[in-house]
Amino acid sequence: MEETISLKEILDTLKKRISLIILITAIATAASGIVSYFFITPIYQASTQILVNQTKDDQAAFQYNEIQTNLQLINTYNVIIKSPRILELVIEELGLNETVDELNEKITVGSEKDSQVVNISVQDPDPNHAANIANTIASVFQKEIKNIMNVDNVNILSKAEVKENASPVKPKPVLNMAIAFVVGLMAGVGLAFLLEYLDNTVKTEQDIEKLLELPVLGAISEMDNEMNSSTMNQAVKKSRVRGETYGA
Fold first, then answer.
1. 129 and 66 in a common domain
2. Please, which pLDDT band fits residue 207 given cuts at 50, 70 and 90?
3. pTM across the whole model
4. Residue 116 to residues 75, 111, 133, 140: CA-CA distances in angstroms?
5. Which of 16, 180, 216, 225 is the most exposed place for a label (fewest CB within 10 A)?
6. Over 70: is that where the pLDDT of 46 sits?
């Protein structure tokens, strides 16, 4: 026999476990905020841009084939920028206490579609340090590409600068807390339904009908304790009055 759950039963379950749901949601949101604000180190990002183009001695316009060649070279340049040959020179020039792999993890290189501009982004807990690394990578790459590929088609378009009120790119506490709120709410609702499913105690007439598969002939309603006390007090008073009357 299939059991169906009505919307009223779902709402009753949520209402009965509302305290548990709110508690789990609040704990998840608060924990996310505390970790984001006090335990995760803020990471700042600095970016520089380089332009890939062919050197021209005259003022003639670029040909379409030359632009396409530059776009194909950009994919190669993206790999060279993060290669050990470039990064080792950057580490040596800045005197960094990092390995090539550790520095490589901080660097992101990319370009917009059909664009000859390459973005070099560096993430670091120190915004000034991130800007120095980004600018050094661009200058070292501009020098070394002449020896690596025997071309001179890279120009620095813009240098990385640190703003006065620089804000970290991660963590994002508000976003993390919003995600934790949704996850905590879902976990609370799921736990509420799980506890309701595992609860085998008999509470209502419907539970008895499902358990015994027999119709309920009658039920004794629950009486309020205050009502019971007042009724008993009245009965005691009446009995006293009757006793005094008979005694008289």
1. yes
2. low
3. 0.69
4. 10, 7, 22, 19
5. 225
6. yes
